[in-house]
């Protein structure tokens, strides 16, 4: 989808909502943005952004309904426990055809569809924290009343902060174990490689530079080359060389099983949280 996005409201512009807001502003594709936060201090911090109307709920009690009524797309970014009350609050204010998008982890499309007016198009999304630098992976899942135009506008919205994958809702939790939690896995690998460098006698500063810039450089090379990671790994791994010996040790540690187990554990926890544990 090209051109301008329709009016968008972000209800609860916390860290993720705020990241998406900044992406929308920087894209130049959204000239009509309304955001709500509870406090004047938080609202004030966003008030200077181009094309943004920032509402503090402590100063404007009807702020959420005002914002929802003025928007064609409503992003729900409040904490998961607060979602049902917010939906009950805004339901009467939504005009027909307004698309409601959840960025609240663990809240089902069914929860949204039961509270909102019948026929409201609902999508559930799972962005990740690289949205802050425009490099997100966002999974989106469509509810029962969503059409191709709704998907196109929501895809365009999230493409302002990165890439978008469409999945059925029953894959959203699994997606969260890969792209949602994934940045933490990468940071952990960088931490451990940094420790290994310190153990080889490098200063902490030099160790960090080596480990961090190697990851940044490798991923930039991957992006620029368009090659399969396995192929790039082979090119670094000379036969009977030092890298081959190191990679053999990593493979003996069964990284494949470790990553499968780690993501399985995350998925089990997502299911527990969905059941309220």
* Gyration radius over CA: 22 Å
Count up the domains. 2
Number of strands: 8
Q: Could you say which overall geometry the principal axes of the C-alpha atoms support?
A: elongated
Task: List the helices and strands in order.
Answer: EHEHEHEHEHEEHEHHHHHH
Structural category: alpha/beta
Mean pLDDT: 95
Secondary structure topology:
Blueprint: E1 8-11, H1 15-27, E2 33-37, H2 40-47, E3 52-56, H3 63-70, E4 73-76, H4 83-90, E5 99-102, H5 109-115, E6 122-126, E7 136-142, H6 148-159, E8 162-166, H7 172-180, H8 182-199, H9 204-225, H10 229-236, H11 242-252, H12 255-274
Parallel strand pairs: 1-2, 1-4, 2-3, 4-5, 5-6, 7-8
Antiparallel strand pairs: 6-7
Helix pairs in contact: 7-12, 8-9
Question: How does this structure look, described?
Answer:
The structure is a single chain. 52% of the residues lie in helices and 14% in strands. It has 277 residues and is α/β, with parallel strands linked by helices. It folds into two domains: 164 residues, Rossmann fold (3-Layer(aba) Sandwich), CATH 3.40.50; 93 residues, ProC C-terminal domain-like fold (Orthogonal Bundle). It has an eight-stranded mixed sheet with strand order 3-2-1-4-5-6-7-8, with helices on both faces. Helix 7 packs across helix 12 and helix 8 packs across helix 9. It starts with 7 loop residues before the first strand and ends with a helix. The mean pLDDT is 95.
């Amino acid at each position: 989808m090209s051109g301008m996005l329709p009016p968008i409201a972000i209800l609860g512009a916390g860290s993720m909502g705020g990241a998406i807001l900044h992406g929308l502003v920087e894209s130049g594709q959204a000239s009509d943005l309304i955001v709500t936060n509870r406090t004047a201090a938080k609202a004030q911090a966003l008030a200077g952004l181009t094309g943004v109307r920032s509402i503090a709920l402590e100063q404007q009690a009807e702020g959420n309904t005002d914002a929802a009524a003025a928007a064609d797309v409503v992003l729900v970014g409040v904490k998961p426990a607060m979602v049902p009350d917010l939906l009950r609050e805004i339901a009467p204010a939504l005009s027909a055809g307004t698309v409601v998008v959840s960025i609240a982890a663990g809240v089902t499309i069914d929860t949204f569809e039961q509270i909102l007016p019948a026929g409201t198009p609902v999508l559930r999304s799972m962005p990740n924290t690289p949205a802050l630098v425009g490099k997100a992976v966002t999974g989106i899942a469509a509810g029962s009343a969503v059409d191709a135009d709704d998907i196109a506008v929501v895809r365009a919205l999230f493409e302002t902060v990165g890439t978008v994958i469409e999945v059925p809702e029953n894959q959203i939790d699994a997606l969260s174990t890969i792209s949602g939690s994934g940045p933490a896995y990468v940071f952990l690998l960088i931490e451990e490689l940094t420790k290994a460098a310190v153990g080889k006698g490098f200063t902490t500063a030099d160790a960090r530079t080596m480990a961090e810039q190697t990851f940044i450089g490798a991923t930039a090379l991957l992006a620029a080359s368009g090659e399969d990671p396995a192929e790039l790994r082979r090119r670094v791994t000379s036969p009977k060389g030092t890298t081959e010996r190191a990679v053999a040790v990593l493979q003996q540690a069964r990284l494949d099983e470790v990553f499968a187990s780690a993501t399985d554990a995350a998925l089990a926890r997502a299911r527990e949280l969905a059941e309220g544990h």
